[in-house]
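G.,

No rush on this.
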Amino acid sequence: MATLANLSDRLRAEIGDYVRSLVETFTGDGSTKRYQLITAPVLGSSLVIKVAGVDVSSTTQVEEQSGMLILATAPAAGASISIAGTAFKYFTKAEIELYVHTAFMEHARTTTDSNGSKATISTLPAIDEYPLILLASTMALFTLATDAAFDIDIISPDGVSIPRSERFRQLNEIIQSRKEQYRELCNLLDVGMHRIEVSVLRRISRLTNRYIPIYRPQEMDDWSLPQRVRLPIPTYGDITPASAVASRDLSAYSGDDFSISIKFSLDLAPYTPKAELRLFQNSRFAQVGPVIVGTFLITKTQSAGQFTYDTLMLSLTGAETAALPRTAYYDIQLTAADGTVKTYLQGKVYTQPQVTL
C-alpha cells in the first residue's frame, strides 16, 4: 500500500535529493538571536537545538528552506549552541509532498480502485507508483531548472570561462528524457495521463432523450440481479456546486459480519441516527428489485474530554450481508431534537460474493 511518506522517499531517491545528518555549533555573543546554518534545507521537526546544554528546540523558529534559526532569547556571551538534525540537498519535506500530491492529482485523475471508486494514495495500484514518481520528478526538476535559469555565464578578461547556463541545459535534457519515459510507461501499462482510453458508446432513447442503461456482463448461468454500470454523463460545460455531504465507500464480504466506526466532531447526544441501504439512490422510480436492501444497526458512543470525538458504529449481521447485492447505496442521517434532519455521509457499499457457505 502506497503512503505519502514512502512516495516522498522514492521521489528523493529518483532526483538524488538524499537525506543527510546535520551537526553544527555556534558560540553566543549576548546579542545575536539569528544563526545561519551552513547546511540547508532542513527538516525543522528533527532539529535538536541546545544552548549551554539546555534544549530550546520548542521555542526556536526554523526557516526550513534557508536554514535560518531564530532563537527566542539571545544566548549569553561564550555560551555554546549546538544543532543536530536532518537536512536535504534540494527540497524541504513540504515541497516534496506538494510535488507528490500534484502529480497524484494529475496522474490518477481517472484512476479507480477495484470497486470502481476514485483512487486515493492509499488505494493507488502498485503499477501506478513508479510512473507517478516520474511525473513528480519532472515537476521537481522544473523547479531546479527555473533556479538555474537565473545564472549567467562568466567570462573573465584572462580568458577563463564558466558556462553556468550549462546546468540549465543539462536539467532540460533530463526533464525531456523523464517526460518521455513517463509517456512510454503510461502507454505500455495503460495508466496515467497517456493511457489509451476505451469509451463505451451510449445510446439515447429517441422518444425520451434519456440514456439507455448499461449492465455489467454476466455468465449465462449467473442468475443474480444484474449490476448497473454507472458511467459518467457529459456535463456540456455545466458547473455543479460540490455536495455538502461527505462521500465514503464501504466494502463488505457476503455472509460475514460487518462493522465500521465513524467519528463525528460534534456532540451526538441530542441526535437520532439512521442509515439505510438501497438498491437505487432515487427509490421513487425504481422498478426493479427491492427498494430497501438493509438497515444498519447503529451504536452511539459518547466520548469525554477535550479534542475527542463521538462515534457511530454501523453494523450488519452475516445474514444481512449475504442478502446484499454487489453494489448498493447508503447514507447517514442525524435527526435533531427539533426534528431537523441533516445527511452527513453518503456513498456506495460494495459486497464481494461469498465462497465458503
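When you get to it, here's the other one too:
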Amino acid sequence: MQTVALQKISSTKIDFQNLVGKSVEIQGMIQNMRILSWGGFIILRNQDYTLQTVYEKSAINFNPEALKTESAIRIKGIVKAAKIKDLAISPRDYELQIEEVTVLSEPSEYPHPLDISKKELKVNLDTNFDYRPLTLRHPQQRSIFKISACINASFGEALSELGFTQIVSPKLVFSGAEGGSNVFSLEYFGKKAYLAQSPQFYKQIMVGVFSKVYEKSTVFRAEKHNTSRHLNEYYSLDYEMQISESYEEIMHTLANVLDYIFGKLQTQCAHELALLEVELPSIKNYLVMKFDDVHETVFKEFGKDFRGDNDLSPEEERLICSYAKSNFNTEFVFVTHYPSDKRPFYTMDDPEDPSKTLSFDLLFRGLEITTGGQRLHKYEDYVAKMNRMGLSPKEFESYLQTFKYGMPTHGGCATGLERITALICNKSNVKEASLFPRDVDRLTP
C-alpha cells in the first residue's frame, strides 16, 4: 500500500514552430503509409494531429513492409518545416523526419475489411454503420464528430455566459413529456416506466429554482420511421428560461447561442471545416414568419398549395428556406404561431387567437432543427388544457405540483445535435452525424 502524490498532466500538443530541428516523440495510430524506392511516408493519427512523418530507408530501424495500418506506434523524429497540400493532414506546415519507430500493438485482422486510407470513404450507409468502429477513423468521419463535439461544448459555454445553470435530469420517467404513445416502455420494479423523450418536465421545474437552466442529454422517440430526418435515440440541446415580456426572448437567446457556436467552430475546427469543404452559416440576421404566412408565401412563390394543413411538410420547409436565402440572404427561418392541435399540452396558446400557439420552429437549410415556445405557467390553465386534450391531470401530478407553488412566465426550446451537425457538414442523412445511429432497424454496433 502506498500514497501517491498528484502528478500534473501536461498537454500533449507539440509546439512545432519552436521545435524545428529538434527531436520529439509522438504516439498514435498509423492512418496511412506510402512506401517508395528511397523511403516513404507514415501518416500518424492521434488526439491532436494527423501528422505526416517521412523516412529514408538508409536511416531507419524498422522494416516498412512489416508495418500495418491501424497499428499503434511511437515515433521519434526531427521536426521539419514543410508545405503539404493534402487537406487531411494537420498541421500542413510541419512534418517529422523519422529516427526511430516502436510498434506498440498491431491489428489481429489484416488487411481490414474496408480501406479507410483513401481520400473519400466510398461506401454505402449500411456498410459505414456496420463497420463503424473502423469507418469512424477516416479523416472525414472524424471531422464530423469533432464539429459535433465543438457544437455540444459551445452550447453549454454560451448559455453559462448568459447566466444559465446546467442540470441533469432522469432518463427513467413516469410518463412521456408529449403525452403521446411514441415512448419506449420498460418494467421498473413491478411498475411501468418510460425512457425520457425530453427533459421538458424537469427543466420547467428547475426554472422555479434557477430561473434559467440548460441540459444536454440523450432522448428517445419510439417512432417507427426510417428516414433521413429521424433517429430513435438522439442528443438534445435544451434550455428553459424565465421571460419578461414575450416568447421572442427565447428566439433571441437561441440566435445568440448559435452565433457563439459558429464563432467557436471557425476558430476550433478550421481544419475539419476545410477538409469537409464546409462554409459556415451566419445568423447575424434571420427571418421570422407566422405559420399561416408560410403557407401563403409557398403558394404565391412556388405554386404549391399547403393551405389548410396543420403542419409544415418537408417540401414546404425546403421551399421556405430557399425563399429566405434568395430574398433575405439568410439560412435561418423562425416559423411561429403553430396550430394548438399540433403542439404539446404545456404550450401556451396565443391570447389573441387561441387556435394558435406562442411557439416556433427554427428551420435551417430546409430542415427543422429546433422546436420551442412559451409554456403555460398557471396550474389551473394546465388542468383546463389537459382536460380539453383528453389527458388526465392525475397522471401528471408530480409534474403539475410545480405550478401549484407558483411559477414565472417561462419558455424554452430543444435543438437536435445530430440535425444541426449534419446540416453544417452538408450531410443529407441525419444518421451520418450520429456516432452509432439507432433507428427502427439498427441496434448495433
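The chain is about 30% helix and 25% strand. The mean pLDDT is 95.

Enjoy the weekend,
O.
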